[in-house]
Please model this.
Amino acid sequence: MGCVQEQHAPTVGAILDRYEQEVIPFTLAPRTQEGYRRIIPKLRALWGHRIAAELKPKDFGPWLYEVQRGKIQRCRMLAVLSAAFTCAVSNWYILEVNILRGVKRPRNPPRDRLVSREEFDSLRAIAPLRVQLMMDLAVRTGQRQGDLLSLKWSQIKDMLIHFQQSKTGKRILVEITPELEAVLDQCWKLPNRGEYVITRTMGNRFTGAGFRASWQRLMDRWCKQGNERFSFHDLRAMAATMCFTPEEAMRLLGHTTLAMTNRVYRRAPERVKPIQLNR
Model:
């Protein structure tokens, strides 16, 4: 691993360099790495020249709240910088404290877009075949886009799909039902079949960026027909919502707490019975 030469009073840029070299490639999922690497140049441009130990919470607070537009992106930027500062404090011992812990960041409500079965079927009808198959796998297995794109035929055995989630490392065995088996059969019949279940036309692996581009083209077409946009990740919430119980959804998604499943992924209104006053 490369190592940035440490300074007695390291700049923010030096800490970000070290974080990008020593931490990001070895601790984060591929898609998260992509996101962090898009953010780090922006952080360097803003604070890279500053001595990290001289920064105060007031150096970030006004910037975070200066305008309403883009606040979510600025929160993400501070989250990345805070992760780098935490390593500087706890791993490399070149900072005394992570001053970003003193910056209050606005909390965003969980996404609540619930994709209906009618919307799913309507979008699927105009989607390219490989996107159709990805949609089918997503709603039946509840797994993330990256884990579906990296799914290999070698992970399917004994009528089970053996997933190891790239984000958490959680191991999940998904039973192959007749419906799921029919989807896998369609994947098996794709031209130029390779080691991956979902492949591009020439048989090579779909990259995350390549699939997202296909999805966005499909969404643009869908929205021009007067429909409401949704993300591929919303299909994971659709799968969780279709489960009979929150506990079943938690196991399918690989969560460690029921609170996460209920707060973020179970999006249908809870049906309750009214109070009976005359008993």
About this structure: Residues 1-7 have pLDDT under 50 and may be disordered. The domain at 12-102 is CATH 1.10.150 (DNA polymerase; domain 1).
